[in-house]
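Cross-posting from the modeling subforum.

Setting up a comparison between two proteins and wanted a second pair of eyes on the formatting. Protein 1 (sequence, then structure tokens):
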Amino acid sequence: MGKAYIVGIGMTKFEKPETRDWQYWDMAREAGTAALADAGVDYARVEQVPVGYCFQASTAGQRAAYELGLTGVPVYNVNNNCATASTALMMARQFVEGGVADCVLALGFEKMTRGALGGGSGAGDFSTSPVARHYGIMAAGHGFEMSPPTAQIFGNAAREHMERYGTTEVQLAAVGAKNHRHSANNPYAQFQDVYSVEEILAAKTIHRPLTRLQCSPTSDGSAAAVVVSERFVVEHGLHDRAVEIVAQSMTTDTEESFASGSCIDAVGLPMSRAAARQVYERSGLGIEDVDVVELHDCFSVNELLTYEALGMCEEGASGKLVESGATTYGGRWVVNPSGGLISKGHPLGATGLAQAAELVWQLRGEAGVGLAHNIGLGGAAVVTLLRRS
């Protein structure tokens, strides 16, 4: 196995759906062109193109990639729910590490509609939904209400965490306050407003205890990364741009995800924990070596759950961890410097690559090791460890 490096990244500003009069191929062209320019690589050098999206038609990946050039290279359409873009990045890394290609462009985009993300409006939808088993766990323990189903299952996971460990609504709101504060400095973020914990608690409740300012919005946007081999880095003099993909792992649901009947497990804690463990084993590094983290805070509670899955604290101690200031500037780690999904936005097919873009920018600065965590219900968890070359 060879090594794989990210040498170019690009993304559009994440925006509320229908803000701009553009098509998905327009945003993909913007992000892809930026990534290629950042790498100093012409699209003619690209040999493979995995493209992630969730809500467009089959072969939309080709339509998007054609905006960058008509070179006839393979284009792969990737759909893995919220983990779609990190799955495209994983495919790019595998192509390079396996010697299939020296230069791969991973591209992700999403053009969404306004309003809450769907997923089933009632118990009658369970039999046809890909996440039927997950919502079945929720319904058995908590019933099924009229609020958005994704907010319900994560909100119920939050309730379980509060009941089990004494986590407070203030601690959950502290996640939102931190990430909104971080996004104020991110020109690509959908929201750049800063909110206090009190303002977050006073916002409209989506599903108790989660308020609107603790939930990721629907978003339009695109992100891209150029992934190359060590030989390509040397031949093209890209050492100053290169960030190594040290280790990466994808896991899916196991029996543990459903055996407990807990929404905490159903929303992905076991598969996130397993993916992190595999990455640490493969890299010889641990969370103590990491400086900066971009993780999947689709809802504030999931950031807390992910602290525990990544080994940043003991089980049940994540509320105290965020409250201590350990996950912001001046603390042990900086988590979601981009503002995270809550504030940066969450176009499903672009999110994982946007995380990679933020980490590459950070690693080209002062950080040494970065970790990305991206999950999708249904399920997939991708953990990626990056290191400055």
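Protein 2 (same layout):
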Amino acid sequence: MAAKTPRDDSDPYRYGIYLRPDARTCRAVTVVTDQLRAQYDLRSAGAFPPHATLVGSQPFGHSEPEVVDALSALLAGRPAFDVHNAGVRARGIGYVYEVGLHPDGSVNEDFVRLAADVDRVVAPFRRPMGSPEPNDYDPAQYGPHLSLASHDLYVRPDLHDEVGDFIHELAQPVPDGFRGDTVVLYRTACPDWSGRWWQTMTWEHVRTWKLGVA
């Protein structure tokens, strides 16, 4: 594991702005992450509420009220959109439900535009930070997903294939899509973001917005 990086003056809070799936999909994510913790003590994906990241790890300092106002203005009356769940996929070191593509394999541009617009309106409120690396919107890298197993597998890469087999063997029922109509802001805290933050991170719900509502 890489050496720990120094803390910075934006500690201890980071903010995440997420698209929340429907309740049945949230339940499926939680079942899988709970089972992975019970069997392998994998914690990072389950450390968060089920979500698809729009922007994450955002250091807003004392600007939380201004961020809420900016997001409220952006999202007021914005239409909801359909999200397709293509099922379990390997992504990077871990595993996810793939939710960024249409059934025909084309990119869900509504999802991409939402992330880009959220990133644009919160950008003025960001503070510099050293760790962890920010999860800003990057059009070249952005791929919406629901994490099932993630950062722990950097520490235990030997478990990658076994964990994948276990997830598939669970055969957890999950809807093949949902309406993308719920955006949520969470405040996260950790005593040390530079280490294995998923073992000590806590989170609080701040605000929910329903798309399509004026």
